[in-house]
Every structure is written in C-alpha cells, then in structure tokens.
Amino acid sequence: MSGGGGGFLKSLLLQPVTKRHVERQILKTPPRHLFRIIQDVDRYSEFLPLCTNSRVLRRQGSTLFDATLTVGLPPMFTENFVSRVSSDADELVVESTSIQSKMFDNLSSRWKLKANKSDPNETEVDFWMEMTVSDPIIVTVLDQALKEVAGRQVAAFAERCKVIPIEEDETDLQR
User: What is the tens place of the pLDDT at every residue in 126-145?
Assistant: First the structure.
C-alpha cells in the first residue's frame, strides 16, 4: 500500500484551477482614447502596477501581435510571459491570451469598451481577467489576487488616460 496515496494526493493538488474576475466601470475618457492606450503595450511598464517590462515582440498585420510582459515583485517573485493580443478597432475590443508562461497554465483578458449613453466622451469598461494555474500555492491566493490585480489594472489605465493627451479623432464632438 505504500506509494499510491501520495501520488493520488499530488495529482489532486496539481489539478488546474481557473478563476475569472470582471471589472465594470465608467471612465472619464473617450473610448478611442482608452483603446489607444490599451494597445500601447510597449508603455505598460511605465504605469501598470507590478509590470517591470513590456514589449511588443512581433506584429501580424494591424490587429494581431505578440507581446512579452514581466510582472512581479523582484527579487521575491517575477514572471515573464508572452501573450497573443488581438484588437478590433470597430468593436473597441482588445483580447489577450498567454501563449508562453511558466507560472500560468493560461492567462487571458478582454477589454470591451463603449461610449457611455449619457456622455459619449466617457467610456463604459467591461474588463475581465481569467487565470488557470496548477501550483497549489498560487491557487490558495488566486481569488483575492485576481480581484485586486484587475481592479488595480483598470485604475492604472484610468490614471494613464489623464496623463496622455486626447487626440482630436478620439472625441465625440456631437452635441
């Protein structure tokens, strides 16, 4: 009877766990302005909490690219991963899915933006993040961490919108 129980327990601990968190907010910036900032991955390390490096690796046309991000609290914890990012300027949607990561079995996010009905120069944000992990240590903190990371990420983009000037073609001048 030796050896069998430990393997079973280990297999239970290594079962992937998937969690998703959704943030919905109204930001005081035009949707196209926020969309441009979301697509500017090369600048993420300048303003996103816990992001120490961000770079577009290769572009495939105007709507698809691969990007690398390094996140964490060096030297205690650092994760470098590559995501495939697709964007749809007509629908104002940006989606990303990890394609290379040591820590995450999967890490996905989606930004869906639309003009606020009461003020077209405000943005209704629907942002979700989803993580799948097998590491039992990460699984124990996943719910709270995901909620906090998603909230901090939306807040960081809101602050970035205040710093980056709005271009003329990003506002709705209808009255």
Answer: 999 999 988 777 777 767 77
Q: Report whether 170 contacts 36 (CB < 8 A).
A: yes
DSSP run (H or E) holding 13: helix 4-13
Beta bridge partner(s), residue 51: 71
Token digits of residue 76 = 């205690």
What's the burial of 161, exposed, middle or buried (CB within 10 Å: 0-12/13-18/19+)? buried
Separation in Å, CA 167 to CA 4, 36, 133, 164: 64, 10, 40, 9
DSSP-based three-state secondary structure for 76: coil
Preceding omega of 31 cis (within 30 degrees of 0): no
- This prediction's pTM: 0.85
Terminal Cα-to-Cα distance of the chain (whole angstroms): 78
CA distance 170 to 42: 20
Query: What's the distance, CA 41 to chain centroid?
Result: 11
For residues 16-38, give the mean pLDDT: 94
According to the model, what pLDDT value does residue 8 have?
55
